[in-house]
Amino acid sequence: MEQPQLKRDLKNRHVQLIAIGGTIGTGLFLGSGKAIALAGPSIIFAYLIVGTALFFVMRALGELLLSNAGYTSFTDFASEYIGPWAGYITGWTYWFCWIMTAMADIIAVGVYTQYWFDIPQWVPAIGCLVLLLTLNLLTVKLFGELEFWFALIKIITIVALIIIGLIMLFTGFQTSTGTVTVENLVAHGGLFPNGLYGFLMAFQMVVFAFVGVELVGVSAAETADPKKNIPSAINKIPIRILLFYVGALFVILCINPWHEMSASSSPFVQVFTLAGIPIAAGIINFVVLTSAASAGNSGLFSTSRMLFNLGSNKQASPSFAKLNKNSVPSNALVISAIVVSAGALLSKLMPENAFSVVTTISAICFIWVWSIILISHIIYKRKNRALHEASIFKAPFTPFVNYLVLAFFAFLLVVMFISEATRTALLLTPIWFIILMFIYKMKRKKPID
């Protein structure tokens, strides 16, 4: 019986914008406010450090995916180079990560809609989920189109912010908080106003802001020309980090001194308001609404493809590996959507602290996924040196940089343990891996039919 094949309908523009959408999320639009409150202007260095580390993760991912045309995701090479248990745990962990993220973002759609309409937040949340599910069931090209336009809205907003900010900077614009100047970066306690501790405490939020950067790898099996499009998308990540994160935050901190910003609201709203644009709040609300919908869309795509991969490898029910007439894993899509919708409805009853714990666990699990990619690449290079030498997309400075980034990830976990805000989540996370390992061992004794 022939293995079902996903359709390669994602064009270069889709892959490029999926890559951008993966590196720009609500973590930047909303979470950066909290990160700035913790680290002050040094937050720019935190984004640079995490962004650089994840660029090397993506280079390793790119080389591994292009080394074998049969790979549909990182679970395939994790199984081959580390062991079937690694593929199983990483696949289900990635599914869990995106389920949590999609839950948060679908709920956010409901919250943002209340800005304009006085309706229960679950109504637009479920409505958005049903719409995204319907469009994703039709064809993978529709997913690509949705992400293309969602990402375009984010890009236009950030570019507009940077242009307006630079005009304000060069003209010495006066706002209610003072003069727009580069001196605002150092005039209020220096670059590290809260010291090294405040700088380190911001890293968890910065890591969460980069969640989704690996989406290019999940879309590889449905990319029309992976040998051209994947390297192109990955190599542009540093430029995107410099422009969208570092550039935007530099402008924001020049316009508004860090201590004048609210940790609970979007720095983007505050800056557009200071620029004298009265509809700023409405504009940014629309942007974060589409950003949340984009993340929900990415969540549905990635969770369904991961279930498809697990089903194809007999690590989940084979029914998840079935494709509809449009070559879309419909069973996997519907199940993922049901789980997300249940979470969206239940989370309304969850206390705020519990919800924060869930999102932190998700960020920690993403560190696991990124680490597995690096470890797989180390083993791949050691076992297949000839394949590595023949690669058209060699990961640079390996294996040294792999070990360096792995050490950095371990350091991040230590920082999360030190922080009271993330310690509980860090201590709870091993339970997930223990459960998965137990289920995996049980499945080995009794294979899935």
UniProtKB/TrEMBL annotation:
Name of the protein in its database record: Amino acid permease
Topological relation to the membrane, as annotated: Multi-pass membrane protein
Annotated localization: Cell membrane
Keywords: Amino-acid transport, Cell membrane, Membrane, Transmembrane, Transmembrane helix, Transport
Top-rank taxon, per record: Bacteria
PROSITE patterns linked: AMINO_ACID_PERMEASE_1
Membrane-spanning parts: 12-30, 36-57, 92-116, 122-143, 155-176, 196-218, 239-259, 271-296, 332-350, 356-380, 400-418, 424-440
Domain Amino acid permease/ SLC12A, chain residue ranges per copy: 14-448
